[in-house]
Design goal:
about 220 residues; about 25% strand; 6 helices; alpha+beta
Length: about 220
């Protein structure tokens, strides 16, 4: 069995678990809520368009040549199309970085979103996009690749990813109430790089959080 086949099996298992969480979460989510503000997790295998990850970065194990994307935004559930605004360009991001024995190269894109996504009292970093080529050991997780490019990372007590490169400084997956205002539409060129989670994808197990899958929807509802 090849390493990529093993990785595909791990993703499938993560997707099945995510599906159960997501179904329960949507059944319990309040209708009046606009969504949640959090870091979403995306991946690209061999230069393909961004795809919503089916597991969190702590369990995902990308292969050499893959790309990982993280986008901070307000998720509106099935209408969420906030993919990273930079294409998964491994060749460009990791240009000149040679593969070494015992290691792998992962292109990492961090999109801090815009002012409309920012928590109250905070503003996105002056530089809205951060990219880097992570050189990590062959069995490293997506979380380790992210840490190699965009420290410091902030987690909550449940090991949920809350902040990347110090942003945001506070909070983690807060519910955002419906305000009647819609975020500005993203340029068509950015949208063409991939698709957000449709109903089928969400029910099929796409993670709705960078770490912890859809558990946040259930946890915030119970609280």
């Amino acid at each position: 069995m090849t390493a990529r086949t093993k990785r595909a099996g791990t993703r499938l298992a993560g997707g099945v678990a995510g599906a159960l969480l997501t179904l329960t979460a949507f059944a319990a989510a309040p209708a009046q809520a606009a969504g949640y503000r959090y870091w979403s997790f995306w991946e690209s295998d061999g230069g393909k368009p961004w795809a919503y990850a089916t597991q969190g970065p702590a369990t995902a194990r990308p292969a050499d040549g893959d790309s990982l994307g993280f986008r901070f935004a307000i998720s509106n559930g099935t209408d969420d199309t906030s993919l990273p605004s930079v294409a998964p360009d491994f060749a460009g991001i990791c240009e000149g970085v040679e593969k070494k024995d015992g290691s792998k190269r992962i292109a990492v894109v961090v999109d801090f979103g815009g002012p409309v996504d920012a928590p109250p009292g905070e503003t996105p970093p002056e530089k809205p996009i951060k990219v880097g080529c992570a050189e990590v050991r062959e069995d490293a997780t997506g979380a380790e690749a992210l840490a190699a490019v965009a420290k410091p990372l902030r987690y909550d007590s449940a090991a949920m990813l809350c902040g990347i490169a110090g942003y945001p400084a506070r909070g983690c997956g807060e519910q955002v109430e419906e305000t009647g205002q819609k975020p500005p539409e993203r340029p068509a060129a950015q949208e063409s790089q991939g698709a957000g989670p449709s109903v089928g994808v969400l029910v099929g197990g796409a993670a709705v959080l960078a770490l912890g899958g859809a558990a946040i929807w259930k946890a915030r509802r119970r609280g």
